[in-house]
Specification:
It contains four helices and four strands. It is an alpha+beta fold.
Protein backbone atom coordinates (compact mmCIF):
# COMPACT_ATOMS: atom_id res chain seq x y z
CA UNK A 1 0.00 0.00 0.00
CA UNK A 2 2.82 2.44 0.79
CA UNK A 3 4.22 2.24 -2.73
CA UNK A 4 0.80 2.86 -4.28
CA UNK A 5 0.14 5.83 -1.98
CA UNK A 6 3.51 7.33 -2.91
CA UNK A 7 2.85 7.38 -6.65
CA UNK A 8 2.34 10.72 -8.37
CA UNK A 9 -1.32 11.54 -8.91
CA UNK A 10 -1.37 12.78 -12.52
CA UNK A 11 -4.28 15.11 -13.37
CA UNK A 12 -6.89 13.21 -15.37
CA UNK A 13 -8.44 14.32 -18.65
CA UNK A 14 -10.74 12.74 -21.22
CA UNK A 15 -7.55 11.27 -22.72
CA UNK A 16 -6.58 9.45 -19.52
CA UNK A 17 -6.50 5.71 -20.10
CA UNK A 18 -8.52 3.51 -17.76
CA UNK A 19 -6.68 0.86 -15.77
CA UNK A 20 -6.98 -2.39 -17.77
CA UNK A 21 -9.41 -4.82 -16.15
CA UNK A 22 -6.70 -7.45 -15.69
CA UNK A 23 -4.65 -4.99 -13.57
CA UNK A 24 -7.48 -3.86 -11.30
CA UNK A 25 -7.40 -6.94 -9.07
CA UNK A 26 -3.68 -6.47 -8.39
CA UNK A 27 -4.16 -2.81 -7.50
CA UNK A 28 -7.18 -3.63 -5.35
CA UNK A 29 -5.06 -6.21 -3.49
CA UNK A 30 -2.72 -3.35 -2.45
CA UNK A 31 -5.60 -1.58 -0.70
CA UNK A 32 -7.35 -2.23 2.59
CA UNK A 33 -9.78 -5.15 2.15
CA UNK A 34 -12.66 -2.79 2.96
CA UNK A 35 -12.43 -1.39 -0.60
CA UNK A 36 -14.57 -3.02 -3.27
CA UNK A 37 -15.08 -2.62 -7.00
CA UNK A 38 -18.60 -1.60 -7.94
CA UNK A 39 -19.77 -2.26 -11.49
CA UNK A 40 -16.08 -2.44 -12.45
CA UNK A 41 -15.89 1.37 -12.65
CA UNK A 42 -15.99 2.57 -9.06
CA UNK A 43 -13.93 1.99 -5.90
CA UNK A 44 -16.01 2.12 -2.71
CA UNK A 45 -15.24 1.94 0.99
CA UNK A 46 -17.68 2.30 3.87
CA UNK A 47 -16.41 3.50 7.23
CA UNK A 48 -18.67 3.01 10.22
CA UNK A 49 -18.88 5.32 13.25
CA UNK A 50 -21.05 5.57 16.35
CA UNK A 51 -22.29 9.09 15.62
CA UNK A 52 -22.56 11.78 12.97
CA UNK A 53 -19.53 13.84 14.01
CA UNK A 54 -17.05 11.05 13.17
CA UNK A 55 -18.07 10.62 9.53
CA UNK A 56 -18.26 14.39 9.08
CA UNK A 57 -14.76 14.95 10.49
CA UNK A 58 -13.32 12.13 8.37
CA UNK A 59 -15.00 13.54 5.25
CA UNK A 60 -13.34 16.88 5.93
CA UNK A 61 -9.91 15.26 6.33
CA UNK A 62 -10.34 13.20 3.15
CA UNK A 63 -11.59 16.31 1.34
CA UNK A 64 -8.45 18.22 2.32
CA UNK A 65 -6.27 15.33 1.12
CA UNK A 66 -8.18 15.21 -2.18
CA UNK A 67 -7.86 18.94 -2.69
CA UNK A 68 -4.13 18.76 -2.06
CA UNK A 69 -3.78 15.84 -4.51
CA UNK A 70 -6.10 17.21 -7.19
CA UNK A 71 -8.24 14.06 -7.39
CA UNK A 72 -11.58 14.09 -5.62
CA UNK A 73 -13.88 11.32 -4.36
CA UNK A 74 -17.60 11.40 -3.89
CA UNK A 75 -18.18 11.48 -0.14
CA UNK A 76 -21.53 10.48 1.33
CA UNK A 77 -21.89 11.46 4.98
CA UNK A 78 -24.60 9.67 6.97
CA UNK A 79 -25.29 9.20 10.62
CA UNK A 80 -22.98 6.36 11.60
CA UNK A 81 -21.12 5.94 8.31
CA UNK A 82 -19.09 7.57 5.58
CA UNK A 83 -19.12 6.19 2.05
CA UNK A 84 -16.08 7.03 -0.05
CA UNK A 85 -16.24 6.49 -3.82
CA UNK A 86 -13.48 7.02 -6.36
CA UNK A 87 -13.91 7.02 -10.11
CA UNK A 88 -12.40 9.24 -12.76
CA UNK A 89 -15.36 11.28 -13.92
CA UNK A 90 -13.60 12.52 -17.08
CA UNK A 91 -13.46 8.95 -18.45
CA UNK A 92 -16.36 7.41 -16.49
CA UNK A 93 -14.01 4.63 -15.47
CA UNK A 94 -11.16 3.81 -13.11
CA UNK A 95 -7.76 5.39 -13.58
CA UNK A 96 -4.58 4.75 -11.63
CA UNK A 97 -5.27 7.98 -9.72
CA UNK A 98 -8.35 6.36 -8.15
CA UNK A 99 -6.25 3.54 -6.69
CA UNK A 100 -3.50 5.96 -5.61
CA UNK A 101 -6.03 8.10 -3.77
CA UNK A 102 -7.68 5.07 -2.17
CA UNK A 103 -4.24 4.06 -0.85
CA UNK A 104 -3.74 7.58 0.49
CA UNK A 105 -7.10 7.40 2.26
CA UNK A 106 -6.02 4.06 3.77
CA UNK A 107 -2.83 5.72 5.02
CA UNK A 108 -4.83 8.65 6.45
CA UNK A 109 -7.19 6.26 8.26
CA UNK A 110 -4.29 4.22 9.63
CA UNK A 111 -2.76 7.40 11.06
CA UNK A 112 -6.04 8.37 12.76
Amino acid sequence: MADLAARICVPCTVHTLPVPREQRAALLADLDPAWSLVEDRLLRRVIRHRDFAGPLAMAQRIGALAQESGHHPDLHVHWGRLIIEFTTHAIKNLSEADFVMAARVDRLLAES
